[in-house]
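Title: Comparing notes on inverse folding

I've been comparing how different people in this forum approach sequence design from structure. To keep things fair, I'm posting one structure and asking everyone to reply with a full sequence. Here's the target:
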């Protein structure tokens, strides 16, 4: 469990300020989720799925620029790559983009999800699903995208 949380904190970093105004932080906390990042343009919360899996949802707020959501997707992928993380591949569904990475030393797979459709303008729902399982089927990856996007969108006001 500690390795899971440490991995997520290393990927995302930890800062504490004021959450974006359209994120229902009260409901997130009432539902028992752990706050990871809280500042003016980024808010993240984490939840333990089971003893081997963790989901961290992040809201990025701001102008997406000319690349739009696809640009955010590519940027997030590049930010996560280093000598300890291997890029496995990517895909997409109607709901979002997904990038699969693997950290062999820790034995964890990271599935980075970026929601395609913005429920609120300039609010992008992203998530990192961390697990020991190698999920490769199209249905598994589509499920990860859907779960992440739905979990993120339910806390937008």
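Reply #1:
Here's my take.
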């Amino acid at each position: 469990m500690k390795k899971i949380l440490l991995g997520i904190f290393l990927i995302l970093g930890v800062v504490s300020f004021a959450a974006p105004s359209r994120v229902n932080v009260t409901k997130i906390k009432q539902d028992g989720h752990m706050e990871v990042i809280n500042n003016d343009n980024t808010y993240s919360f984490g939840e333990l799925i089971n003893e081997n899996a963790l989901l961290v949802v992040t809201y990025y707020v701001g102008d997406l620029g000319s690349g739009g959501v696809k640009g955010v997707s590519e940027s997030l992928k590049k930010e996560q790559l280093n000598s300890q993380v291997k890029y496995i591949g990517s895909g997409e569904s109607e709901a979002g983009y997904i990038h699969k990475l693997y950290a062999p030393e820790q034995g964890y797979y990271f599935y980075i999800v970026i929601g395609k459709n913005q429920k609120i303008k300039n609010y992008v729902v992203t998530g990192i699903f961390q697990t020991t399982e190698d999920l490769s089927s199209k249905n598994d990856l589509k499920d990860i995208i859907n779960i992440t996007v739905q979990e993120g969108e339910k806390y937008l006001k």
